[in-house]
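ok so i was messing around last nite and threw this chain in just to see what happens. nothing serious, just curious
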Amino acid sequence: MSRRHPNVINKDEVPATEGGRGDRYAYFRRQLGAAAGGRALGASYMELPPGRSAWPAHFHCANEEAIFVIQGTGTLRLGIERIPIRSGDYVALPAGPTEHQIINDSSGPLSYLAFSTMVPTDVVVYTDSAKLGVFGGSPPGGTREGRIVEGFFKLEEAVDYWEGETVLDEDPEDEPE
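result:
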């Protein structure tokens, strides 16, 4: 079957990738946005098996996300709230300090569309594990080929702004800019 247009893609034309780890995280993902030539807006068709989440609870400092539930039921973890979600629900997840996570706590599959802005420099905070993810050159969910930096750091290992820097004048009143 030939494609109708380079910017039009059917989910069945995009190979699914499988991801996750351990007993809590598993997903099947089809990156629709990239396959259709999208650059500034990412879109993925996601399917979660029963009892699983795709990602740990997190929030983005730069990228906004949204979810549209296609089939099934589950729970949206949004900060301290647990909100039931079902087919037809749309969830807006603005950038900022409220962690979110989709959990398939049903006995059947949960499928949804996940949308994200694709700001190439982002910091992701993983609230349960108290760590930071730093991405530059290509956003989380983007291609690794364009990524300049990607790293994960424990918040408890934070250091002073001037740690390891050579400073000519040791004035304690100086604040980082």
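not much to say yet. The mean pLDDT is 92.
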